[in-house]
Amino acid sequence: MADQPVTLRTRKFIRNPLLGRKQMVVDVLHPSRPNVSKDELRSKLAELYKANKDTVSVFGFRTQYGGGKSTGFALIYDSNEAMKKFEPHYRLVRYGQATKIEKASRQQRKQRKNRAKTVRGTAKAKGADKKKKK
Questions:
Q1: How many angstroms separate the CA atoms of 61 and 38, rounded?
Q2: Are 50 and 56 in contact (CB under 8 A)?
Q3: Radius of gyration of the chain (CA)
Q4: pLDDT digits (tens, 9 = 90+) for 34-48
Q5: pTM for the full model?
Q6: pLDDT given at position 109
Q7: What is the distance between the alpha carbons of residues 126 and 128, in angstroms, rounded to a whole number?
Q8: Pairing between strand 7-16 and 69-77?
Q9: d(Cα 101, Cα 4) in Å, to the nearest integer?
């Protein structure tokens, strides 16, 4: 798959010194492929802008109707520190630079909250999982 040609074009290029990054809209032309992976795009952009692949973030890609062209957004940070400071946590998890915070499902958290409402006082902290007997 990766041997078929892919063309990258960048537009609306902005250098953002306050956030320590370059930001741009990326047009990907891939006429003989259904799509291009974000990992491949990161490595191609890093090569194009002489940056490290770990400091490149790509997101928001939409393939045009009929295929052959995708458009998305790319950020190239000046350093890993700037990326860790300004990039959202979920994207850092995506790129393997942070660990995912494991927590109970949304429904379980809501159920625990509602069970805790039925208990009074200090029992809330320890007895939120027990049902109140009538």
A1: 9
A2: no
A3: 23
A4: 999 999 999 999 999
A5: 0.76
A6: 94
A7: 6
A8: unpaired
A9: 38
